[in-house]
Amino acid sequence: MNKEIFIKLLQQRQFKAVRSILDVMNEVDIASLLSKLDDKELALAFRLIPKDKAAEVFSNMDTSMQSYLVEMFTEKELKELLDDLYMDDTVDMLEELPANLVNRILNTVSATDRKMINQLLNYPDDSAGSIMTTEYVDLRDTMTVGQAMAHIKRTGIHKETIYTCYVTERRKLVGIVSAKDLMTTEDDVPIKDLMETEIISVTTHNDQEYVAQLFTKYDLLALPVLDADGLMVGIVTFDDAMDVMVDEATEDITKMAAINPSEKTYFDTSVFQHAMNRIPWLLILMLTSIITGTIITKYENAFAAIPLLVSFIPMLMDTGGNCGSQSATLIIRGIALDEIHFKDLFKVVFKEFRISLIVGAALSIVNGLRILIQYRNPSLALVIAFSLIGTVIMAKMVGCMLPLLAKKIHLDPAIMASPLITTLVDTFSILIYFNIATLLFKL
């Protein structure tokens, strides 16, 4: 939808045309379109969204838009919206809103909903309990398929998903049954004969990243969440797991780029905050590079004897950094997908060592031939060739071990990615280079 045409229709107060446009648009696309409007136009346009879409559009808006609308809503409008919002979306919104708006919302919802919201807000950040919804279809094993279908028709409209139904007995999860099985089975078949009892579940305090991994591993649509007593308290749905995957990937990417993570979008984050997110790591990496400078100074006699040695420093450091980053990236990915564990350390090291021999040999042969052709200096070619092999082996060992060691001591493996590994590899590559050079040239 063209933004200018939409705004023009709003300004001309052609509300019927605006409603007809919003009626056929997807909720996510509506939220994206409304994000381009100013505050006055946003409030007007939101009130023209069909009622059955309004809550879903609202849940897809960013925090600043939600905050403005909550301030603008009348008590009646706010209550209608909250009644249509799923509980997990309400909690996600409350976690981001200012305290005065949170209080207004809590005063608007019913006492039962307020109790449930407060309970969800008290779960640890990044836990399964903090991302679950309490709105799911529960059945009894004494029901027949026909009774279960009738129950879903009565209550399903208020549930976040009906594709997977949960069979409970005094809130204890005893089985699951899919909507597909219910729709393709005769009405008189008992639920207990249809349900699956091999159940994959998580607890409220399980890490949300672990929850997302289960969705990927088992191709789930929803995952039941149990409390400390083994009683069912909610479900995590696929869309929430996808949000977790995006958040975790974003966090890892920013850490790998030596930036402190931020929950705000790029444009919503101020210039000052962007700078503050980047400065700490840049300072650390800048100060650690002093070590490299000190090492280079120590070998200034080698420079004086053979000035050409200096010109190969950037190539060796960059090659080492790139090799380390390659290994680290693959290991971090393996850790994130639960494919690689600390117990695999020696297996990983052995594999990366063999890889580094092949990579180092290929790079050293190419560079050795280049130096022979360009400088006609066999000794220099040998120094660079051996230095490259040593640097590549060292870089890949560092790149594969550091993320696993970080995971073992409960640090984020992404912290050990490109910037930190590059800094360490720079230091070691200089040591390797000048030790080999002084040995072969007898400096």
Overall, the morphology is: elongated
Number of helices: 22
Main beta-sheet strand count, sense and barrel state: 3 strands, mixed
**Strands in their spatial order, largest beta sheet:** 1-2-3
What report would you give on this structure?
The protein has 443 residues and is mainly α. Helix content is 66%, strand content 6%. It is built from 22 helices and six strands. The strands form two sheets. Strands 1-2-3 form a three-stranded mixed beta sheet. The chain has a three-stranded mixed beta sheet with strand order 4-5-6. Helix 8 crosses helix 10 (111-121), helix 19 packs parallel to helix 21 (378-408) and helix 19 packs across helix 22.
Short note summarizing the structure:
With 443 residues, the protein is mainly alpha-helical.
Topology:
Elements: H1 3-11, H2 15-24, H3 27-34, H4 39-47, H5 51-59, H6 63-72, H7 75-84, H8 87-96, H9 99-108, H10 111-121, H11 128-131, E1 138-139, H12 145-155, E2 164-169, E3 172-178, H13 179-183, H14 191-194, E4 202-203, H15 208-218, E5 222-226, E6 232-237, H16 238-256, H17 271-298, H18 300-305, H19 313-336, H20 345-375, H21 378-408, H22 418-441
Parallel strand pairs: 1-2, 4-5
Antiparallel strand pairs: 2-3, 5-6
Helix pairs in contact: 3-5, 8-10, 15-16, 17-22, 19-21, 19-22, 20-21, 21-22
